[in-house]
Write a structure and sequence with these properties.
The chain is of the alpha+beta class and about 270 residues long. About 20% of the residues lie in helices and about 35% in strands. It is built from 4 helices and 15 strands. The strands form 2 sheets. Strands 1, 2, 3, 4, 5, 6, 7 and 8 form an 8-stranded mixed β-sheet that branches. A 5-stranded mixed barrel has the order 9-11-12-14-13. A hairpin with a 2-residue loop joins strand 13 and strand 14. The longest helix has 23 residues. It comes from Arabidopsis arenosa (Sand rock-cress). This is Replication protein A 70 kDa DNA-binding subunit B/D first OB fold domain-containing protein.
């Protein structure tokens, strides 16, 4: 069996190969019904991403207990296929499909890198339709958080009232640009829990709070570009503690930017 160095090297109908992968995001795990497909966003040692699915018919107890987000595995005996659904997450033209023979052997961490691919606010605002087919990462200072709202549709059978709740917030980058973000259902609840926990701390003195958004989709909200939390895959980290990210250094960039803006205002006022 041949060890493939990168997910980028995987081509359709390739067999008898294996590759080291990190599960970046996994959802419908385990599936609650036959209509749900366990889906993952995987990354290789170079940070290249690829979608992967486990059809319900081959999902087993071993996968349920073994597969964990953030862990590394040696993946073998899988199929490389054309995307089976219209919804995509990575830019890779193919996806991995598990079979009844697929093996996921857990391995010790091959890299502590978080493979965060920051997407520029300007690129989000001018994104073309094909760029909205995959999810992106970005980061910014939380500028404002709006009250929770309720979508005005009738609750469908099997749908909870919480799934209609959504929250909008705005983040700011180090260049002073703003981006609207919309999180619906569980993604909104997750953001709200983190936000409320952070601002309710006794030590909180209105200092800058950073939000790292992973696997969000470029969309529109009230006619303006926004980032929309995608059901299942999206993750939000407030004041992220990643091994390859210096939070204090990132926050200091805002202080420098604000000082420069203040100096510009002083200069302007002198004319």
């Amino acid at each position: 069996m041949v060890l493939v160095s990168s997910l980028s090297d995987l081509q359709r109908r390739m067999t008898n190969c294996m590759v080291y992968v990190k599960i970046m995001s996994i959802w419908n795990h385990p599936p609650k019904n036959r209509d749900e497909i366990t889906t993952m966003i995987m990354a290789d040692v170079k940070g290249k991403r690829m979608d992967a699915t486990i059809p319900t018919r081959v999902y087993n107890e071993n996968y349920r207990t073994k597969l964990r987000e953030g862990e590394w595995y040696l993946l073998s005996d899988f199929k490389v296929v054309l995307p089976t659904r219209s919804v995509r997450y990575s830019q890779h033209p193919f996806e991995i499909e598990f079979t009844c023979k697929t093996s996921m052997d857990h391995v010790r961490s091959r890299s502590r890198w978080n493979f965060f691919h920051e997407y520029d606010f300007h690129m989000i605002k001018i994104a073309k339709p094909e760029e909205k087919k995959f999810v992106v990462d970005t980061i910014g200072l939380i500028h404002s958080v709006e009250p929770v709202e309720i979508l005005p549709w009738v609750t469908r059978p099997g749908e909870s009232h919480e799934e209609k709740r959504y929250i909008t917030f705005t983040i700011k980058d180090t260049l002073g640009r703003f981006m609207n973000c919309v999180a619906l259902g569980k993604a909104g609840e997750d953001f709200l829990l983190q936000w409320e926990e952070r601002v309710s701390r006794v030590q909180y003195t209105h200092e800058k709070i950073i939000a790292s958004l992973r696997f969000w989709r470029i969309s529109e909200y009230k006619g303006n570009p926004c980032l929309l939390a995608d059901e299942g895959c999206s993750r939000t980290f407030i004041d992220p503690n990643f091994p390859d990210f210096d939070l204090s250094h990132y926050i200091s960039a805002f202080s420098i930017s604000e000082e420069e803006e203040l100096n510009e205002e002083v200069v302007d006022s002198n004319f």
